[in-house]
Amino acid sequence: MEAPDWWRDTVVYQIYPVSFKDTTGNGKGDLNGITSKLPYLKDLGVEVVWLSPVYASPMVDMGYDISNYREIYPDFGSMADWERMVEEAHRIGLKVVMDLVVNHTSDQHEWFQDAKNGGPKKDWYIWRRKNKEGKEPNNWGAIFGGSCWEWNDKLQEYYLHVFDVSQPDLNWENPVVREAVWDVMRFWLDKGCDGFRMDVINCISKTPGFPDAPVTDPQNPYQYGLIHRFNGPKVADHLLEMHEKVLRYYPNAFTVGEAPGVKSAEQALPLVKNGVPLQMLFHFEHMYIDHQPGKTCFNYKPWKLTELKDVLGKFMEFNQANGGWDSLYLENHDQPRIVSRWANDGLYRDVSSKMLAIFHATGRGTLFLYQGQEIGMANPTSWDFDELRDLEEIQYYEAVEAKNGDIQDALKQIQRIGRDNSRTPMQWNADVNAGFTSGTPWIKVNQDYKAWNVEAQSTSSGMSVLKFWKLVLRNRKEHPGLIRGKFEMVDYENENVYAYTRTDAIGQYLIVCL
């Protein structure tokens, strides 16, 4: 029988479906491609598969703009394909977690189509009139650029979109909206989904009154950032209602909430204490250490190892003492490849990837791997504008160009930190297009695929990165102290060594990363 807190010990593998495996030749990954690779994931040591959105969508933001929560995006396949994938996953002992994107919908969703025309669902979204100066209600800047507010001429009001203009925010103050979300969750759980990763879930409550954000960029009328848009006073209330109305009826369901702007374990604790209402969060503080405060990710800030220790070590130690639990992640669909970002993707790529594997897999928390991380995939060495596919990158580049800025520097920053770096196709073998597709890939394949791929690392005579990851995951399972043992940082002040211990009744483990 499965332990109630099985999720603490598990290993989760995130799949970005459009880039994982194509079986149709259209250049885009699909559900049948995922099904074909489930044995590979099982052999790797994975126990939970998390899919980035596969719902119906116009794909402005690669599926994080959903137009129908109960349909599959046609390029990914059909609902029957999804059902077959889940059935096969369950047969071989894998769970399947879906991406729940309910802070906003696509502007093509029937809910918003009704709302923008003044129909009964108008109050399902957030609307405000012009301010006294005849402008936007406040100075909030959207995550992808410009204002958070878009004018609707018919209604003579603005609607709020914290992200792209095509992603209007739902009004979680409306109990009917919350009930609609609960219905979506029940629909997928009843179909066999094993839980949810919840996209920007702490954005579902905003600061009452929608006050202006602090001015961090005087040259810009719209202030970039998370203040007032995230971490409103009702986040915990809404999630507790979610638990009461839905999750408690599915006691084995997996839950992790994405929570940018949650800056400390103390702030996170009400959302995860003893696994209620959520089991864990993705905070972003370790992902922000190379960002200039109050600016986009494309503004680099040098960082020190002690900063990373202060974030991760203190999160783990606080949660350990107070009934919280951590998520362990270094990569995902929104972050560049970690070996390129934090380590060395040149001469020392192999050993850097292995060091990061040890560091990643032995912290206190549930382990999340992103596709390709297990073979040490790296950022491409460069990007041209016509190769870009990500909305955030394209809007950043165009904003620099519009100001007659340095577009070569813009491309350099995109290569360093842009989201397309993690979205290049999975590198299966040295065949054409890395074995990802027989057609034309929707995004370019990293040029290093002939040397860095699953097949080469599976058949190599030495200890490849892939083989090393399998060893690490096996050792993690065989030594529970590496998962649930006491966590304690060693030498917080050392700028050259990241070290900590894990201790249980059997013994103590010392992990040292240089």
Q: What does this protein structure show overall?
A:
Helix 10 (349-361) packs parallel to helix 14 (465-478) and helix 11 runs antiparallel to helix 12. The mean pLDDT is 97. Among the domains are: 383-421, no CATH class; 486-514, no CATH class. Strand 10 (254-258), helix 7 (265-272) and strand 11 (280-282) form a beta-alpha-beta unit. It is built from 15 helices and 16 strands. The chain has helices at 31-36, 38-44, 79-91, 110-115, 175-191, 235-245, 265-272, 305-322, 338-341, 349-361, 391-402, 407-417, 454-459, 465-478, 481-484; strands at residues 11-15, 48-51, 55-56, 68-72, 95-100, 127-128, 149-152, 157-160, 195-198, 254-258, 280-282, 327-328, 366-370, 486-490, 498-503, 508-513. The protein is α/β, with parallel strands linked by helices and 514 residues long. It is globular. The longest helix is centred in the middle third of the chain and has 18 residues, at 305-322. It starts with 10 loop residues before the first strand and ends with a strand.
